Amino acid sequence: MFTNWLINKLIPKSKKNSREAYGLLGGIVGIVVNIILFVVKFFIGTITNSVAITADAFNNLSDMGSAVVTIIGFKIADKPADKEHPFGHGRGEYIAGLVVSFAVLLVGFQFLKESYDRIKNPSPLVFDYISFIVLIISVFTKVWLGMFNKVLSRKISSGTLNATSFDSFSDVIITSTVALSLVASKYTTFPIDGYSGIIVSLFILFAGYNLVKDTISPLLGEAPDPELVKSIISEVLSYKPIMGTHDLIVHSYGAGKHIATIHAEIPSDVPIMAAHEIIDKAENEISKKLGIHLVIHMDPVNLNDVEINETKEKIDEILSKIPSIKSYHDFRIIGENKHKNIVFDAVVDNSFNVGYAEEITEQVNEKIKEIYPQYNVIINFDKDYTQHE
C-alpha cells in the first residue's frame, strides 16, 4: 500500500513510462533508508558497546553504494545517443545491475569468512534486548525495502532493481541469523551462529551467482524475448502479400531499445515499386507499434515456376527426415539444361555442429540425384538467432 502511494506520489504521470524515474526513486529511497539505519545502529552500537550492531551499521553504509550505483546506471542509460554511441546508452543499466550483483557476491564471501571464523574461534554471545530489538526493526525495514525494489523492478522489468531487491533480502537473511543467534545464546554455548552463517552465506553466493549470470547475459548478447519475436513475425505477416519471413535478428541496446532485421518473402510477380511501398509501410508502422527499429529485407519468391515447385516438393520430403534442419528458405534453381544447382538456406539450431554441414549436404545430394541426376544441391546453413535453449 505504502509502496504504491510512494510511486504515485513521487513519480509524476508524465514520467510513468520513464525507466530513469523508477530507477531514481529506487536509488533515493535506498539511500534514505540505509542512512537512517546507519545512524540509528551506529548510535545504539556505540552507547551499548555492541560490535555486532556497529558492524551491521557499516554494512548499511556500504548498501548506500549499491543505491548510488543504481542511480548512476539509470542516469547513464537515459542519456540520448551521441557520436560515440549511436544506439544510445541503454546498456548502462545492465552494467549497474552487474555491479550490484557483484556486491551481493562480496557480501556472501564476507559472511562466509565471518561465519568460519566464529566456528574456528568461538566467542560467547551475550543476549541484549536493545540489540535484539534494533536487529528486528532492521529486518522489517529491509524486508520492506526489498519488496519496494521488487515492485519497481516488475513495473519496468529491470534486472538492476531486481539485483538491488535481492541485496536487501540478503541483508534480511544475515541480520535474522544474527538475531536468532542472540536468542540461541541464552540456551547454548554451541557456536550455532557460525554454522547457520555458513549455510546462509552459501545461499547468498548461489543467488549472487544467478544474479551475475542474469545481468551479464544481455551484455554478452542473449536471445530476444520470445514474445517480441512472435509479435514481430506476426505483425510482418499481417501485411499482404507478404507470405513468409526468415532470418530475424534482434539486437538489444538496453531495456526497451531494440533494433531488428528480418527477411520478408513476397511473390516475384508483385511489381517492385508496389513491393517496396509495402515494405516501407510495414517498417514504419511496426517500429512505432512495438517500440523498436525494424529493417525489412525483401525476398522475391517465384510461385509460378513448375520446375521449382515440383523440385521443392521433393526437397520437403527429404528435409523432413533430417532433424537438424528446422526449416529452409530462399529456394531457387540456378543454371540451364543438364547443369543446374538447387540452392537454399537451411535453418539449424544454435547447437548445430558445423562439421555435419558437409555430411548433410551430401546426404541431400544423394537423395535428389536419385530423382534428378542433373541437379546439384548447395545448402547454406543459417542459425536461428531467436532460439532459447
UniProtKB/TrEMBL annotation:
InterPro entries, per database record: Cation_efflux (IPR002524), Cation_efflux_CTD (IPR027470), Cation_efflux_CTD_sf (IPR036837), Cation_efflux_TM (IPR058533), Cation_efflux_TMD_sf (IPR027469), CDF_Transporter (IPR050291)
GO cellular component: a single term: membrane
Gene3D superfamilies per the UniProt record, alphabetical: Cation efflux protein transmembrane domain, Cation efflux protein, cytoplasmic domain
Domain Cation efflux protein transmembrane: 28-220
Cation efflux protein cytoplasmic domain ranges (all copies): 224-300, 310-382
Membrane topology: Multi-pass membrane protein
Subcellular localization(s) per the UniProt record: Membrane
Superkingdom per UniProt: Bacteria
Transmembrane segments: 21-44, 94-112, 124-145, 194-212
GO molecular function, one term: monoatomic cation transmembrane transporter activity
Keywords: Membrane, Transmembrane, Transmembrane helix, Transport
Family statement: Belongs to the cation diffusion facilitator (CDF) transporter (TC 2.A.4) family.
PANTHER family from the UniProt entry: MITOCHONDRIAL METAL TRANSPORTER 1-RELATED
Protein's name in the database: Cation diffusion facilitator family transporter
Provenance organism: Fervidicella metallireducens AeB
